[in-house]
Q: What sequence folds into this?
């Protein structure tokens, strides 16, 4: 009888230890430090004829996952060569991912007067981001209004929502080395989003 009790207690302790380890693993943030080379391509009939171009994405930060599976990324995402109107020291993102697998890249930032006092605040909506669970594969639905020449535009002109459609939108998918690989990766990462359209 005593042996049975020891076995039962040992089993309960082992189950509790495994559950506790799983909870700790799930709720602790995971570091993300990747540089991905991919392809920027255009959708639609014109896109199939257009040249795809190489694109590099640098992602640095932490990925948080709740016990319910809700993911949040905190850190910086840089598409090499892209210009955005957000001051470099204020480019940290906090992206909460929806159940369809995407998150919106929104940069809240402050602007200052000549004395350094806060003059106001704004937010810049960039792109939609799709990732796999560990952020080693990504697809961006690009807001091409943001790709225009930014130097001659007013603050108001730059504050646009994400403009994108499936007939002529642009996507960056990484890692990929051809348009076909990029398209396949985009479809894989966006399957839940596409199903709900």
A:
């Amino acid at each position: 009888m005593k042996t049975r009790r020891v076995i039962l207690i040992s089993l309960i302790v082992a189950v509790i230890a495994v559950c506790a380890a799983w909870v700790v693993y799930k709720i602790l943030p995971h570091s993300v430090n990747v540089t991905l080379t991919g392809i920027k391509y255009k959708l639609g009939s014109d896109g199939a004829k257009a040249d795809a171009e190489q694109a590099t994405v640098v992602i640095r930060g932490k990925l948080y996952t709740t016990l319910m599976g809700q993911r949040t990324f905190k850190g910086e995402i840089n598409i090499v060569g892209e210009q955005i109107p957000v001051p470099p020291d204020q480019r940290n993102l906090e992206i909460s991912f929806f159940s369809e697998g995407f998150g919106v890249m929104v940069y809240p930032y402050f602007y200052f007067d000549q004395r350094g006092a806060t003059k106001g605040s704004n937010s810049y909506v960039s792109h939609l981001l799709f990732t796999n669970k560990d952020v080693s594969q990504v697809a961006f639905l690009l807001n091409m209004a943001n790709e225009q020449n930014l130097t001659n535009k007013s603050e108001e002109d730059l504050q646009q929502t994400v403009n994108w459609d499936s007939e002529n939108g642009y996507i960056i998918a990484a890692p990929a080395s051809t348009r076909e690989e990029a398209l396949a990766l985009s479809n894989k990462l966006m399957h839940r989003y596409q199903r709900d359209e």
